[in-house]
Amino acid sequence: MSSSTLRPRKSVTARGIAVLAASTLILAACGGDEGDDGDGAAEETTEDGGEATDDGSESTEGGEEAGGGTDPGAPEAGDRELVLKVGTVLPQTGALAFLGPPEEAGALLAAQHINEADAGITVELTLGDSGDPDNRAYATTVPQLLNAGTNVIVGAASSGVSKLFIDEVVAAETLMISPANTAPEFTTWPDNGLYWRTAPSDLLQGEVLGNLIASDGVVNLGILYLNDAYGTGLEAQLTETFTAANGTVVATESYNAGDTTFDAQISSILAADPDALALITFEEIKTIIPALESAGVDMSSLYFVDGNIADYSADFDPGTLEGSKGTQPGPALDDSFLTDLNAAWMEHSGEELSDLNYAGETYDAIVLAALAALAGNSVEGPEMATWMQQVSGGIGGGEKFDNFADAAAAIAEGKVVDYDGPSGPITFNEAGDPTEATIGIFEYDENNSLVRIN
Fold first, then answer.
1. Phi, psi torsion values for 390, nearest 5 degrees
2. DSSP helix, strand, coil percent of the chain (3-state; round to 5)
3. Does the residue 215 lie in any domain?
4. Separation between Cα atoms, residue 10 and residue 32, nearest integer Å
5. What is the distance between the alpha carbons of residues 22 and 198, in angstroms, rounded to a whole number?
6. Reduced to 3 states, what is the DSSP secondary structure of residue 205?
């Protein structure tokens, strides 16, 4: 076989199917205790010390404490009269611009639902552009939002972009919640408890992706990745997991943000004769795919990640990506939420959503901030941060709610709440990381559209 053609997948093993069927991951709280889903299922010990069960759930160790962790107790009963200024720093331009519409739609819908609830808090929402490290739109957006007295910054999507302004937000004592940051280093960032994220660390996505590739029968893997906080973190976890599953990473090549040609990296990887290729990229994928196709690569042996998994029905010829797979954090969104989400975006932009990446996580970020503000009867950053873990169910043992209106009413009665939203249970730990997450597994159909297979 020539080095320019990736081998077709081998049959999926029964063991791989058992471990990956649901791909729901549970991260144990700080302290190093291994979790258990308690269903008595057969268990498999993983490399990181967690346990994978045959229903696809998995527990791993949580991160180092970076704030929070102390239960503030029950909120004070009574009415509230709060105005919460929320500013988004999400990609309207740049390498992740395809994530902007679903994330902003989630923000718009959250503000709509909160304001319609008439629960003593009004959200004033400002949509701002994060751009990327090249166009640096965040460098204008973030100061504008902070100078306007914004209480909550929602963003960025890119871990690399968030790293460039997180310290500025923390210094302003403003709450910051990212719906899509997945770089592991945020777990231990010195953020004074002000940084939270509703997307799971790439320690989880990398583990699911690595096991998926191994279960598909791949023995020799090539990896092309973006050289930034997101790409290097995900590549490291993917490599660790795939290697632990008795696979071999035969070649890894990186590129820098702003690069426009990838022939050298592709040639180097293909020279190692991999069975499959994992692509950890952003929008550069639209240049990489034609280059791989021209090189004679078996396009069904590609694996995508959350930074590039999208509907490409309008970008490539039918069948180009058929059979290739990828991962994306987040559960399947229910029909009623999707209807409302699309309506909110249509009203704002006059266009339909083509992707849904991190829409639920953005929605939940704003709802959780509003619930924390109600619980503490304050829109000050440090005070809201005090309540974020509790309203997510991370501490306090609160009553479960799946919508803002009912949870807000319970807080007004002095009750402790545990909000579970469209992105899942969330359940923050002390470091501001979600301890429960679902990683979706998708496969491309003949139209280069995504079909969820778990």
1. -65, -45
2. 35, 20, 45
3. no
4. 36
5. 20
6. helix
Token pair of 297 as six digits: 């690569």
CATH of the domain at 113: 3.40.50.2300
Helix axes 381-391, 359-376, angle to 10 degrees: 110
Is the dihedral angle over the CA atoms 25, 30, 36, 37 positive or is it negative? negative
What pLDDT is recorded for position 374? 99
Query: Is the pLDDT score of 29 beyond 90?
Result: no
Task: Tell me the pTM.
Answer: 0.84
The reply to whether 282 falls in a domain is no
How are beta strands 82-90 and 325-329 bridged, if at all? Answer: unpaired
Query: What are the start-end ranges of the H helices in 80-224?
Result: 100-117, 138-147, 159-171, 202-215
Provide the residue type at 65 as one letter.
Answer: E
Phi, psi (5° rounding) for residue 375? Answer: -60, -40
Phi, psi of 59 (to 5 degrees): -115, 140
For residue 442, being part of any structural domain is answered with no
Q: Is residue 297 part of a domain?
A: no
Asked if residues 83 and 379 have their Cβ atoms less than 8 Å apart, the reply is yes
Which is nearest to 45 in space by CA: 29, 60, 63? 60
What digits encode the pLDDT tens for the residues 191-211?
A: 999 999 999 999 999 999 999
Which residue carries 């996505």 as its tokens?
205
- The tokens for 90 are 């999400």
* Residue 119 belongs to domain spanning: 82-201+336-437
Please tell me whether residue 207 adopts helix, strand or coil conformation. Answer: helix
Nearest to 246 by CA among 1, 13, 410: 13
Separation of alpha carbons 286 and 211, rounded Å: 26
User: Which residues are CB-contacts of 358 (< 8 A; sequence separation ≥ 6)?
Assistant: 99, 102, 103, 106, 157, 179, 180, 199, 306, 329, 330
Among the listed residues 218, 215, 275, the one whose alpha carbon sits nearest the alpha carbon of residue 6: 275
pLDDT tens profile 31-85: 333 333 333 222 222 333 333 333 333 333 333 333 467 999 999 999 999 999 9
- The encoded tokens of residue 453 equal 């297979």
- Give CA–CA dist 277/324, Å, rounded: 10
Residues 446 and 322 sit within 8 Å (Cβ to Cβ): yes
- For tokens 């639209």, the residue is 286
Number of structural domains, the chain? 1
